[in-house]
């Protein structure tokens, strides 16, 4: 009997209806699939039923990796490593469809790593990922709402995001104390160009550092009160960080890069 390890944020998905919803969220048949944190392999089994071309799984836990090897043999390729230390762009020759019931303690870190490391070419076709509901709400939040923040701005830059469903604690073993949400991400065809995504991280960090304060201080910190930028982007410094749209943050980052060059 495999027991979930609290230190690795493990909660194994057991609800058959939710497993069905996950595998139906993206096209699997004859595609290359990557599953993050497969755990005991419940979702893995459902994915394999849909006849993928190839299936890779990343599992950090040595005991679980051995268990998966015994359970699935040569049906899957197991990468027994930490997802945060891997460079996915070098792992695959073609775009992959990614599934993941991500460990809640590092879910945003994983997603932000993928987005910040995106170069000109996407290494994935789509991402079907489970988050704790509170995090998912921040990812899909619209501007002028209290949950809108850095995570919303970073995640929506190059990706379209769709919420598939909320998931109750009873769907997992052991039961987490919170609700979860399943999100689908897929690449945008058009997005505002930013030379180095690290600058988007920096700009949003400075602006949302004091989210209840007006924009004057962070704007002066980054742009030294440059009136031309304010006029160009039509920004009112009496507003607060949550009142600026997604595109305004991408354009601000672009301006920040232009002025630094």
SSE layout and pairings?
Layout lengths: L11 E2 L2 H8 L8 E5 L5 H8 L4 E5 L3 H11 L4 E3 L8 H4 L4 E6 L5 H10 L7 E9 H8 L9 H6 L3 E9 L4 E2 L6 E8 L9 H12 L7 H8 L3 H7 L12 H15 L1
Parallel strand pairs: 2-3, 2-5, 3-4, 5-6
Antiparallel strand pairs: 1-8, 6-9, 7-9
Helix pairs in contact: 1-2, 8-11
Description:
With 261 residues, the chain is an alpha/beta fold. It has two domains: 6-187, Vaccinia Virus protein VP39 (Rossmann fold); 197-260, Helicase, Ruva Protein, domain 3. The protein has eleven helices and nine strands. It has helices at 16-23, 42-49, 62-72, 88-91, 107-116, 133-140, 150-155, 197-208, 216-223, 227-233, 246-260, and strands at 12-13, 32-36, 54-58, 77-79, 96-101, 124-132, 159-167, 172-173, 180-187. The strands form two sheets. A seven-stranded mixed beta sheet has the order 4-3-2-5-6-9-7. Strand 2 (32-36), helix 2 and strand 3 form a beta-alpha-beta unit. Helix 8 (197-208) crosses helix 11. 32% of the residues are buried. The model is unreliable at 4-9 (pLDDT under 50).
């Amino acid at each position: 009997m495999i027991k979930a390890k609290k230190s690795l944020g493990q909660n194994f998905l057991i609800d058959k209806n939710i497993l069905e919803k996950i595998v139906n969220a993206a096209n699997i048949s004859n595609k290359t699939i990557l599953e993050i944190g497969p755990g005991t392999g419940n979702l893995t089994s459902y994915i394999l039923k849909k006849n993928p071309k190839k299936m890779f799984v990343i599992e950090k836990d040595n005991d679980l990796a051995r268990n998966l090897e015994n359970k699935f043999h040569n049906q899957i390729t197991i990468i027994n490593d930490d997802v945060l230390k891997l460079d996915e762009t070098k792992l695959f020759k073609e775009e992959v469809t990614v599934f993941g019931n991500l460990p809640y303690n590092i879910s945003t870190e994983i997603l932000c790593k993928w987005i910040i490391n995106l170069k000109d070419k996407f290494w994935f076709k789509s991402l079907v990922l489970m988050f704790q509901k509170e995090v998912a709400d921040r990812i899909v939040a619209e501007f002028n709402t209290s949950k809108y923040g850095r995570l919303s701005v970073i995640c929506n830059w190059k990706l379209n995001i769709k919420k598939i469903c909320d998931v109750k604690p009873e769907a997992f073993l052991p039961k987490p104390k919170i609700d979860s949400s399943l999100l689908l991400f897929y690449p945008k065809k058009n997005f505002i160009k930013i030379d180095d995504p690290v600058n988007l991280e920096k700009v949003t960090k400075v602006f949302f550092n004091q989210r209840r304060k007006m924009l004057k201080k962070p704007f002066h910190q980054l742009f030294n009160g440059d009136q031309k930028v304010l006029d160009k982007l039509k920004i009112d410094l009496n507003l607060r960080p949550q009142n600026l749209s997604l595109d305004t943050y991408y354009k601000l980052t672009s301006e920040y890069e232009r002025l630094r060059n």
